[in-house]
Amino acid sequence: MYTEESVADEECAMMQEEEWEVLKSIYPDVCISNDAGPFGRTIKLEIPVELSPARSVTIVPTAPPQCHSHATSPLAVLPPFLLALILPPQYPLRASPRITSLTSTHAWFPASKIRDLHTQLAEMWTHDLQGVLYTWVAFLSGAEFFDSSSLTIINPSPSTLLPLLESYNTHAQDAAFAETSYPCAICLSPRKGRHCVRLACAHVFCRPCLSDFWASCITEGDIGRAGEEDVVRVVEEEEVKRWKWLRAKRALERDPGMVHCPVAFCQTPVPSPDLGGEDGESGWARLRTCPTCEFAFCAFCRRTWHGPISECPLRVTEGFVVEYVGLAEGDARRGEIERRWGRGNVKRLVWKYEEERMNREWMSSCTMGCPGCGVHVEKSVGCNHMTCVKCKQHFCYLCGEKLAPSEPYKHFNTPGKNCFSKLFDGHSEDGFDWIE
After folding, report:
1. What is the pLDDT of residue 128?
2. In degrees to the nearest 10, what's the CA dihedral of 248, 249, 250, 255?
3. pLDDT at residue 360, as a whole number
4. Average pLDDT value for the chain
């Protein structure tokens, strides 16, 4: 004989079964177990916390003076809550579910706030509800317990928790991708994510199509369609080697500062150095170190590295400097030389070249070289009989001929010589030039 209470319990049992089936259909990965027990049905749920859109989480230390807070990269998922509860026979009409355990994986949720969360869940049940399990799962998985303005977690060891949260987020996203179907962007066939490749640009391709396409591109020398990380995941090892070789070749071809190693048996192309933000016009921009033979040399003179301050011998750089000076302003070849050697370096070498040229012209027109040691002498006043202060050689300032120390003025008194009677040529006898 059925009593009113037994009928009500039977109705509750049917409602519990129906609620469980609905919950499993909506959250199949959340529902872990549903076992009958002496005090009702024992249910275990594993509820991941989803953040939409992905947001950064700030982890604040329990004791601020000891360590600093940490901010994660944007996370889409947090580790799940483990919720164990008992549904009494009178649930959901006359009794509420009883939570026996509520914890968070990796203990990321502060233990001090678990009791508050427990209370929030308990207050959601009312007699007029058909069931509260779906509401609980939606509340936890939707991160509704967080303050909407910021996501802050208090933890005694932020540096330990940070990598755990980021690792779980990556693993969860990869698992979700593997179980989701995507249309291949090449063949348009729907494939599960486990058979596809998602590139850094977020486009998805099935692995066979992308492998064939990239293998064809690499064979033809087209390497600008993907990064190394994506290529390594898809194509064969030999194709990866060719891709890296083509990439290095292209980089060298685009590098205006590339030079070949001057060692005769090496000749390896050496790229421009990475100065790490330092001024590209500095002396260090000339340094090259061969990756094959490790010979360190100057890119300008091709000699052993002589430091960033010491200048190259002018005759070594004079070739392209003379060419640069001889070109018209705005000439395309001038631009090539500036890109290869550095605009500042070229301007500096041109200035030095012009200075040396003017010095040579002045030395040639205004001085006379000693025929004994080669030291140049400039005469300001006096006669044309000179005595070198370095080697004591006597010589004529007009023609540079050596003079006998015993008879130095015979050179100027001998008829028929070019310097006859020119002891004071170009100057007045009182030592001053006359200005007409």
Report:
1. 67
2. 90
3. 84
4. 83
> What Rg do the C-alpha atoms of the chain give, in angstroms?
44
Three-state secondary structure along the chain?
CCCHHHHHHHHHHHHHHHHHHHHHHHCCCCEEEEEEECCEEEEEEEEEEEEEEEECCEEEECCCCCCCCEECCCEEEEEEEEEEEEECCCCCCCCCCEEEEEEEHHHCCCHHHHHHHHHHHHCCCCCCCCCCHHHHHHHHHCCCCCCCCCCEEEECCHHHHHHHHHHHHHHHHHHHHHHCEEECCCCCCEEEHHHEEECCCCCEEEHHHHHHHHHHHHHHCCCCCCCHHHHHHHCCHHHHHHHHHHHHHHHHHHCCCCEECCCCCCCCEECCCCCCCCCCCCHHHHEEECCCCCCEEECCCCCECCCCCCCCCHHHHHHHHHHHHHCCCCCHHHHHHHHHHCHHHHHHHHHHHHHHHHHHHHHHHHCEECCCCCCEECCCCCCCEEECCCCCCEEECCCCCECCCCCCCHHHHCCCCCCCCCCCCCCCCCCCCCCC
**Tokens 């275990």 belong to which residue?**
44
Q: Say what the pLDDT of residue 426 is.
A: 58
What is the reported pLDDT for 152? 83
Confidence of residue 80 (pLDDT cuts 50, 70, 90): very high
Tokens of 2: 């059925």
pLDDT tens, 329-362? 888 888 887 776 666 677 878 888 888 888 888 8
CA distance 7 to 13: 10
Instruction: Give me 4's structure tokens.
Output: 């009113």
Please say whether the dihedral angle defined by the alpha carbons of residues 363, 368, 373 and 374, taken in this order, is positive or negative: positive
Mean pLDDT, range 238-245, rounded to an integer: 87
Look at residue 185 and tell me whether its pLDDT is greater than 60. Answer: yes
pLDDT tens per residue, range 204-236:
999 999 888 888 888 888 877 777 777 888 888
For residues 82, 88, 94, 97, the Cα torsion angle rounded to the nearest 10 degrees is -10
What's the pLDDT score for residue 431? 42
261, 294 contact by CB (below 8 A): no
CA distance 316 to 39: 96
